[in-house]
Design brief:
two-stranded antiparallel sheet; 38% helix; single chain; mainly alpha; 99 residues; 1 helix
């Protein structure tokens, strides 16, 4: 067997031993961390994990209650965004919904 092949075999053997040692240590570390979390009453937010969950689009907000209503059709508008055709150019006080 060549020296290179022997070294490759030793590397593979050492890598397998390192993987086994890591697996055993990870089990112990996880158990220790879980025990500390329970002992100190920590949450995901305390550990900084809650921030990572906020990636992507923000959650949709609840729709606003209607502020204006067309007396003819009954259509409503919250007062935000592009005004509907039935209120454009007209006095909006006429269309206010009594609260």
């Amino acid at each position: 067997m060549s020296q290179y092949a022997e070294l490759k075999a030793k590397i593979a053997e050492l890598q397998a031993k390192a993987d086994d040692a890591r697996r055993q240590e990870v089990v112990n570390v996880i158990a220790e961390i879980k025990q500390k979390i329970v002992e100190f009453g920590l949450s995901a937010h305390d550990l900084g994990f809650a921030e990572a969950a906020r990636r992507g689009r923000p959650p949709k907000k609840a729709p606003l209650p209607p502020k204006f209503q067309d007396p003819k059709s009954g259509n409503t508008w919250s007062g935000r965004g592009k005004p509907p055709k039935w209120i454009v150019g007209k006095n909006r006080d006429r269309f206010l919904i009594a609260q």
